[in-house]
Amino acid sequence: MQAGSGAAAHSAATAGEKEPPVPLLWKVSDEDNSLYLLGSFHLLLPDDYPLSRDVDLAFADAEKLVFEMAPEELASPQLGLQMAQAAMRADGGALDAQLGPELAAKLADWGRDNAAQLAATGMSVELLQRFEPWFVGMMVTITQMMDLGFTPALGLDAHMGGLAQAAQKPTAGLETGTQQIAFLDGMEAGEQMQMLEQALDQAAAGAEPMLALHAAWRAGDVEAILEGTVAEMRRDFPALYRAINVERNDAWLPELEARLRDDGTDDTLVVVGAMHLLGEDGLVEKLRARGYEVERVCSACTAP
């Protein structure tokens, strides 16, 4: 099934009013203050709003918000330009020469089937040949999601950043834009190739796996996410999984613990991609292992 037809079917199936998403939300506490950890989906649909009252209450209770990247950086038009500049191939050669025949053929097949969708992002198949694999992998995923109706402007990170700005609550990022670009551009060649291959495999699978992942996020279904996308990445792309999930989680832990140890009583709402919270490598279990009190905040999980 073509991605466009998947989007049409999805829109028809969700035309009716929906219940708010069941949040992937945890409260981590010490004696003085708390962190709320909220699992994000970076691109969302219009009917993913309004959010659960659990999220509203966590936002109201938090004096500060922390994101993977500070909202003002995430919304900056310069970020995309900086990312593209960093991703330009330094050797002047075509991407296909690095990919090898099999992966280059996958990219060519995807480009042929999605030329119009790619053009809507300001890119072309020919232009992609000038970039590093990590950037092309991102473009494949973003193109697929936007064709299904998902948009970055509706992502949970962007939404919560807007709420914080309106409420004049301080915000911060666990990474700067420069750090995130340096991390992506600094990945080893094998990790970058895995990132591109995973994106192409997901796109080739059609709309259903992406919509299933989104449905699992909406349902707050931890096990479905762990047994699906997370298990698949750990199994098929272990170097990529370690680079983008495990190592970044470990780098973020000291900052989160510092906020818990702060002598003040300010509570913080932390909004990061859902995968960063879940499973044995996730921030929830890592903080629990350090002795903090951890509870899931989920009214819908306990409702009759």
TrEMBL record:
Domain of life: Bacteria
Name by which UniProt lists this protein: TraB/GumN family protein
